[in-house]
Write a structure and sequence with these properties.
Layout lengths: L1 H33 L2 H5 L7 H15 L9 H15 L2 H10 L14 H11 L2 H4 L16 H11 L5 E6 L4 H17 L5 E6 L4 H7 L6 E6 L2 E4 L6 H11 L5 E3 L5 H6 L1 H4 L3 E6 L6 H9 L5 E6 L6 H6 L8 E5 L8 E4 L5 H9 L12 H7 L11 E7 L6 H13 L5 E7 L4 H4 L2 H6 L6 E7 L5 E6 L8 H16 L6 E4 L11 H22 L2 H26 L9 H14 L11 E2 L5 H6 L6 E7 L4 H12 L8 E7 L6 H8 L1 H7 L3 H6 L6 E5 L4 E5 L17 H16 L5 H10 L5 E2 L6 H11 L1
Parallel strand pairs: 1-2, 5-7, 6-7, 10-11, 15-17, 16-17
Antiparallel strand pairs: 1-3, 3-4, 6-8, 8-9, 10-12, 12-13, 13-14, 16-18, 18-19, 19-20
Helix pairs in contact: 3-4, 22-23, 26-30
Organism: Sparus aurata
InterPro entries: DnaJ_C16_autophagy_reg, DnaJ_domain, DnaJ_domain_CS, DNAJC16_TRX, J_dom_sf, Thioredoxin-like_sf, Thioredoxin_domain
GO cellular component, one term: endoplasmic reticulum membrane
Length: about 775
């Protein structure tokens, strides 16, 4: 019986196996057709890129989860997106056509094994067959990083908050294994302010190489542009500790009864407000550390453990409620906080608003250009004027009463349009030694200047408070009166100048910067050696060996090099004199200016496009060089405007054109009472015209009177006197355009009076008239 049954079994087994193979083949055909990008997009294998793109757009609109409520819409949308990513890339499309491969991370075999490889991929790795969870669902799409986005957004933002980045890929079983822990960690850390990112190793190979990630899964921390790999077990507590260890040390200072006075009094040296958090836990919360990291350039942070017995006096002095976390913010007054916040569930958004509203002291010291730009921004609109009241003082004991009086005045005159600040004359010498500011600051007497910034290049309008500043009641009354006049009349600031960039008083020394960079490199080398990541170590090792090779090569060359004979002192003096005479200042304030001639006159004025204005400078052969240089300097900040053109007119060649133009503007000539004869004999050197060729009107700038008479020439003057007068006349001509910048601003605002003409006089006519009269 047993032998017979065993003899029948081989006869029934082939039929059963055939049935199983038939089912598997049907399933394989089904799964292969479901993952065929051509069938998903509905295009043929010979379809062009235009046809593929058109099909993708139509299907993406149809299956987008926000528009299609079908439960399968999300899954279909992902398939459509993956199919387009494969077929839109010629290399991936070629791989799929030859090998049937959809993921470039899978290893390629030889072409003759295509049938076995297709069976292997479809049977063992098809997620629809085994119903494996996907390694990247639709909710993770908002965290996906691209190469351009990473360099433009994430890298700069890493200086304000840390980033936790996961490197993954399709068909990664280890990635599926850590997915639950990753989601829990994201839900915990993202509300605290940690940035989250996901890099697909298959589609973002360039970004993965930049990060140094060559395998999936990998978890990376990014702080201050520095990449650090996570090497521990993927547990939520380990990831949280990993982020905390990435933050710089000493972000938050522990405060007790013994050191809180020194901590609060240090606002003057640090030039920052102070924030103190009171809480029951003995360690500093991660939320507070992340907030301190984001605002570390503006505010100092301290922490008080309410459960510590050494803090009872501190709790009693500020009347702290021990049942909820409390934050106090101090500025110049260390005995009374300027703001308090208390909440049981302290959120990141609440803490950010609390700190960002108190980033600066009431009267901060300008220690760098960035602080100056934030306190006194450049004027952009008429309603957004910001006036900076600047005290120029010193660090000596004699200046302390005046500085204290200035702080009291600023505290009593808080207004939205006013910003109070001070600078130390010794620390900001480039600013205080500029020609205009130097005249204001007088030795041992502090001075107050009211500024309004007009451009990023440093141009400001200013007015100094007369009498200096010593903090008396008379000085306060005088400053208050001038501020009231300024708010009624914005043109009260009558002087203008260009300020140099401020020194960075808080910048670390070069040696400290070099030591910090060396410390980071040593840590990175140690980390790579510890975990044997030789591929990531190669750039660093190559840099080290290259530096050593250059160093030893230089030493060897110097050892075999013959010393040069010493040169004669006379030759050295000649070389130094040649170097000093050959040095020239670099070009700046370059503006393209065109001369108005009979060839360019029609295109630059008569047929000028609507909305365009030509700014024309009138000059002579003698004043051409000085006036053009000053003209370029004054209009340089407006040269970027597309509707402005700049030209000059030579009055020696066309001396009758200006009188002809002014005669045609009859209203102006009647109001000023000039006759034709006066117009012919007038000197128009330094006049500037803003000509609107389409609407036939112009605005006139009259130069500053210098007190020199160009027609005053005496034959009895000696040669040295004539040279001295010519130099003084060139300097006076240079000052004719001193107020041109203010006139240009009024031109852009549209507040200048307009003189209309019936037609523009032709240059040929003026030339012919001049030749006929002569």
């Amino acid at each position: 019986m047993t032998v017979r049954r065993s003899s029948r079994h081989p006869r029934t087994c082939p039929g059963f196996l055939a049935f199983i193979l038939l089912i598997l083949s049907v399933q394989l055909v089904k799964t292969s057709s479901e993952h065929d990008p051509y069938k998903i997009l509905g295009v043929g294998r010979s379809a062009s890129q235009t046809e593929i793109k058109r099909a993708y757009k139509n299907l993406a609109k149809e299956w987008h989860p926000d528009k299609n409520k079908d439960p399968k819409a999300e899954e279909m949308f992902i398939k459509v997106s993956k199919s387009y990513e494969i077929l839109s890339n010629e290399e991936r499309r070629s791989n799929f056509d030859r090998y049937g491969q959809m993921d470039e991370n899978q290893p390629f075999g030889q072409s003759q094994h295509q049938g076995f490889r297709g069976f292997h991929n479809s049977f063992y790795f098809d997620e629809s067959f085994f119903h494996f969870p996907r390694s990247r669902d639709f909710a993770d799409s908002k965290y996906l990083l691209h190469h351009a986005q990473f360099n433009s957004d994430v890298l700069p933002d890493s200086h304000k908050r840390p980033y936790l980045i996961k490197v993954t890929s399709e068909w990664c079983f280890a990635c599926i294994h850590i997915e639950p822990v990753w989601k829990e960690t994201v839900q915990e850390l993202e509300p605290l302010g940690v940035g989250i990112g996901i890099v697909d190793l298959g589609y973002e190979r360039r970004l993965a190489n930049q990060l140094g990630a060559h395998r999936a899964p990998s978890i990376i921390g990014l702080v201050n542009g520095r990449v650090t790999f996570f090497h521990q077990a993927v547990v939520r507590e380990h990831l949280r500790q990993f982020i905390e260890n990435l933050l710089p040390q000493r972000l938050v200072e522990k405060i007790t009864d013994d050191n809180y006075l020194a901590y609060l009094d240090n606002w003057h040296a640090e030039n920052k407000p102070s924030v103190v958090l009171f809480d029951q836990v003995p360690v500093v919360p991660l939320l507070y550390k992340l907030t301190a990291f984001a605002f570390r350039d503006y505010v100092r942070f301290g922490y008080v453990d309410q459960g510590d017995t050494h803090n009872t006096r501190l709790l009693r002095q500020f009347n702290i409620n021990t049942y909820a976390p409390t934050m106090l913010l101090f500025k110049e007054d260390t005995e009374k906080p300027v703001d308090i916040i208390q909440a049981r569930g302290m959120k990141r958004q609440i803490m950010d608003e609390f700190v960002s509203n108190n980033k600066f002291l009431q009267v901060p010291r300008l220690v760098n250009q960035q602080l100056f730009d934030e306190l006194c921004p450049v004027k952009q609109f008429h309603r957004r004027r910001k006036y900076c009241v600047l005290l120029i003082t010193g660090e000596e004991q004699a200046f302390l009463p005046g500085n204290k009086a200035f702080l009291d005045f600023a505290s009593a005159n808080k207004k939205e349009v006013l910003r109070f600040a001070y600078v130390y004359q010794r620390q900001q010498q480039p600013l205080c030694l500029s020609s205009e500011i130097k005249n204001i600051f007088r030795g041992q007497c502090a001075s107050v200047v009211i500024l309004e910034r007009r451009s990023q290049a440093g141009k400001v309008l200013y007015r100094s408070v007369s009498g200096g500043w010593n903090g008396s009641e008379e000085d306060k009354y005088r400053l208050h009166e001038q501020l009231e006049l300024l708010q009624k009349d914005p043109t009260y600031l009558s002087s203008d100048t260009t300020l140099p960039e401020l020194n960075n008083e808080m910048a670390p020394m070069f040696l400290i910067q070099w030591m910090n960079a060396a410390y980071d490199y040593i840590l990175q080398i140690y980390d790579d050696l510890l975990y044997s990541n030789w591929r990531e170590m190669m750039p660093i090792l190559s840099l080290i060996f290259s530096a050593l090779f250059i160093l030893f090569g230089t030493v060897i060359i110097q050892a075999f090099r013959k010393p040069k004979p010493k040169e004669q002192p006379q030759a050295e003096e000649d070389a130094s004199s040649r170097a000093s005479t050959s040095s020239r200042p670099p070009k700046k304030d370059f503006v393209e200016v065109t001369e108005l001639t009979d060839i360019t006159y029609t295109s630059n004025l008569v047929k000028l496009r609507p909305g365009h204005i030509n700014v024309v400078l009138v000059l002579t052969n003698a004043s051409k060089t000085a006036l053009l240089r000053k003209f370029a300097k004054e209009v340089f900040s407006f040269s970027g405007t597309q509707t402005l053109h700049f030209s000059f007119l030579n009055a020696d060649k066309h001396r009758h054109w200006m009188p002809s133009l002014l005669r045609s503007a009859t209203d102006v000539m009647q109001s000023e009472g000039h006759s034709d004869e006066d117009e012919e004999s007038s000197d128009y050197t330094g006049h500037v015209l803003a000509l609107n060729g389409y609407k036939k009107y112009f605005c006139l700038f009259r130069p500053v009177f210098t007190g020199d008479d160009p027609n005053d020439s005496s034959s009895e003057t000696s040669f040295s006197d004539s040279r001295r007068k010519s130099r003084s006349r060139s300097r006076s001509i240079h000052h004719k355009l001193d107020r041109l910048g203010l006139w240009m601003e009024r031109l852009m605002e549209g507040t200048l009076p307009r003189l209309r003409v019936p037609a523009w006089p032709a240059l040929e006519e003026t030339i012919n008239n001049s030749s006929t009269e002569s």
